[in-house]
Amino acid sequence: MTTLGGRDTQTETLLGAVRAPATRSTLAVVIPCHNEEHAIASVVHDFRQALPEADIYVYDNQSTDATREHASRAGAIVRREPRLGKGNVVRRMFADVEADIYVMVDGDGTYHAPTARHMVDLLIDNDLDMVVGRREPIADDDRAYRRGHSTGNAVFARVFRLLYGSDFTDAFSGYRVMSRRFVKSFPGTSSGFEIETELSGHAATVSAACSEVPTPYRSRKGNSNSKLRTYRDGGRILRVALQQFRELRPLQFFGILFIVLTAAAVGIGIPVVNEYVRSGLVLRFPTAILAAAIQTVAFICLTCGLVLQSVGRARQEVRRLAYLQIESPGGCRRGP
Q1: Backbone angles phi, psi at 57, to 5 degrees
Q2: Is residue 105's pLDDT more than 90?
Q3: Which helix (H) or strand (E) holds 178?
Q4: By C-alpha distance, which of 299, 313, 120 is closest to 207?
């Protein structure tokens, strides 16, 4: 075996493959999938017609049916993510796929493929970083939204508006068009359906330009079943939203705790103060100590909020700078 400066040619070939940059396409459709054999072929076909210039990737997430085979026969580039959970799949897609614009859509056949062209054009023409497809159920399709999901989506949209200041009315839509700089600067950590919550939080952190457009939404095809569990996943989503609120706005988060604890301390301590005013004696020492302890914890919370506000601002600036170092979607504009 020949060597090149002490290295064998096989090693040089492997190192060259590692160093070689991945091929980057202008437009990529990325589809996370788990047991969607009844719908995935039609989803790939519909998006091929809507966006003929796009590379279509299907990421299989431990499917036990024929999802991979159907997607491959439909002409998609099929890859696998062994860790179960939509968040794991989304992180893998964002890490592996190289493109200027990403169209993320679920593989269950519920989303309207022709809307993708409008969403892509809107993102390019207005230099946006994310366009969210706001789901509007098709008339006479009572199965598009499961019971409680419509109400839950509206409630969480209000929560996100309060926490992040976002104007999204469909916080959990799986239909999104995103710029390269948004995708490649996204430090997702969630493993499940709470990944959409993180996307909204990331948009708020880096002050990304976003928009929302209506898109028809229909019920699932065939025997396909939703993997979303209303109460379990809803609780996880709320937990992630509160965690992000604590990280993005620590002064407000710990300020609320300060107010609540202070109110509790005052409520407990007022009877002790009244007794002291009347008699000049502190007759209930345990109550007085409890009120003082609660107020001390309240001041600790306020101090934590002030410190973490400065730390969080520095982290936000770092993420913003990392986001700005990536090419804007305006570079993909077609013609004058």
Answers
A1: -110, 130
A2: yes
A3: strand 176-179
A4: 313
